[in-house]
Specification:
Number of strands: 10
Strand content: 5-15%
Structural class: alpha/beta
Number of domains: 2
Number of helices: 17
Largest sheet: 5 strands, parallel
Strand order of the largest sheet: 1-2-3-4-5
Radius of gyration: 35 Å
Shape: globular
Order of helices and strands: HHHHEHHEHHHEEEHEHEHEHEEHHHH
Helix content: 25-40%
Length: 485
């Protein structure tokens, strides 16, 4: 007690106690209100916040000023029936299309194409004079299998959503008759002549403002022949075809051919043209009803010629099986055999058969597959690339809903086609035929002189598929920019 009293009686000690007490109370208050942190937070400077916000704002502004944004916004205009569907067509020099038609005698050196380029590529009208094979209306034309580029262009001229303003176009069409160009120079021409039109077209396109917007990725083109006619891999004079599809710029476009390269991301197969080009829905419905009711007296049939110079071909084996079966109808074709080049003969056989054999032709695909479907005959395929990997825009993903598949190796092992087909029960056959007949509208090219009201044909489906592809690509560009860190 004496010591404590002594300490407080000393003036200096008292001041020290007061100072320490005040500092202690301050520290206690500071920790309670969070003045001090156990882990220091770096300072945030105002100019860094401004930079971050400006970057995000800049990306948004760039996204909204893409040259194709006007076209993207048009799809949201509910008052415009063409919103999101506009097509801009390049006005090419006539040497890329019309001149080839005018000089039709040069298109094919093996036969005269001039009659086939009439009626917008449909060819001459055929009359129903052969035992009622065709329906009683002017829907039937003698159409050449490689004329689809001309048919497509003629249909495009009647497309209801054409525009002269490329800024609102959902896609851009290039009306180059690539198939005619390849065909007219297929024999006896050097490679510079074969490639000339392709190179000139690409140079012209690359200088167009429309091309520069997406480097051609919003462009599409329709070719009338198989892809292999445009894929010459070397510059040897002995190699056939041109190199159109191997040009870097062309690889940016969507290219539509009657047979595509299944491993290409920008090539798509569209149907070969058949003889049926209706101008009314009723014409289609009448034909579907007709082939549905047809009596089919043959289990299966085959129309075609052997390929003696192709050791991989199974055609000779199929011909032998068909000749040796009382359930098969054979129409054996040859260069001079006019029967196979007469549409009524082929369609009559297909209409009277349950199944139609469709092996690879000169390439994997063949026009006959589409003729058989038109006749309500269930196709039998032997190679996936003959149909399944090709026409994915137009047919169900489940290929066995409308067709039968027999591997080529089974034929080489002498597996009986007749026995395999006879195992398919009647109910399954009816379901498959119904599916085949339902496919008819999707695999035909309607007459542009009138408009189908409820049905979509091969042209409609192709154009919409291209538009969807371009729209998806454009949206991906916008999303990619907006999601950048």
């Amino acid at each position: 007690m004496e010591i404590r009293n002594y300490m407080f009686q000393q003036p200096r000690f008292g001041v020290l106690v007061l100072v320490c007490s005040f500092f202690g109370f301050y520290l206690l208050y500071a920790f309670q209100v969070g003045v001090f942190e156990t882990t220091p937070t770096p300072p945030v400077f105002h100019h860094e916040l401004e930079t971050s916000e400006l970057s995000r704002s800049s990306r948004y502004e760039n996204a909204t000023v893409f040259p194709f944004m006007k076209a993207m916004r048009s799809a949201n205009n509910k008052s415009d029936p063409c919103g999101g569907k506009y097509i801009y067509v390049h006005n090419l020099a006539s040497r890329f299309n019309d001149d080839m038609v005018t000089e039709c005698e040069r298109i094919n050196k093996l036969y005269d194409m001039c009659k086939f380029v009439t009626n917008g590529g449909f060819g001459p009208i055929m009359n129903n004079t052969t035992q009622g094979v065709f329906s009683d209306n002017e829907c039937w034309y003698d159409t050449e299998q490689f004329s689809v580029s001309l048919i497509f262009h003629n249909r495009m001229k009647h497309y209801e959503c054409l525009t002269s303003d490329s800024s609102i176009a959902a896609a851009i069409f290039v009306p180059f008759y690539a198939g005619f160009d390849a065909s007219r120079y297929s024999l006896g021409y050097n490679i510079s002549t074969r490639d000339a039109a392709s190179l000139d077209l690409v140079n012209w396109l690359k200088n167009r403002d429309e091309w520069k917007i997406m480097n051609g990725k919003d462009h599409f083109l329709v070719g009338g022949r198989p892809t292999w006619d445009h894929r010459r891999s070397t510059d040897k004079e002995t190699d056939r075809g041109n190199k159109f599809l191997l040009l870097p710029a062309v690889k940016n476009m969507s290219t539509l051919f009657v047979e595509s390269n299944p491993w290409s991301s920008n090539e798509f197969a569209i149907p070969y043209p058949t003889y049926f080009h209706p101008s009314k829905d009723s014409h289609v419905f009448d034909w579907q009803d007709r082939v549905m009711k047809k009596e089919r007296i043959w289990l299966f049939c085959f129309a075609g010629a052997p390929r003696p110079n192709d050791p991989a071909s199974i055609r000779s084996l199929l011909i032998d099986q068909c000749k040796n079966s009382s359930f098969c109808n054979l129409l054996r074709c040859g260069v001079e055999d006019i029967k196979c080049r007469t549409p009524s003969n082929v369609l009559e056989m297909f209409q009277s058969s349950v199944f139609c054999l469709q092996p690879p032709g000169d390439s994997y695909t063949r026009r006959s597959a589409f003729d058989s479907i038109l006749a309500g005959c269930i196709p039998v395929f032997f190679h996936p690339d003959s149909f399944y990997t090709q026409y994915t825009w137009f047919v169900p993903k489940n290929n066995f809903r409308y067709s039968v598949f027999v591997p080529e190796d089974d034929i080489r092992k002498n597996v009986s086609i007749e026995q395999r087909l006879r195992k398919i029960d009647a109910e399954k056959i009816k379901m498959m035929r119904d599916e085949v007949i339902n496919l008819i509208p999707k695999l035909m090219y309607a007459n542009p002189s009138s408009k189908l009201e409820t049905l979509k044909d091969a042209f409609d489906i192709s154009v919409q598929a291209v538009i969807d592809k371009v729209t998806h690509m454009r949206q991906g560009m916008i999303d990619g920019l907006m999601n950048e860190p």
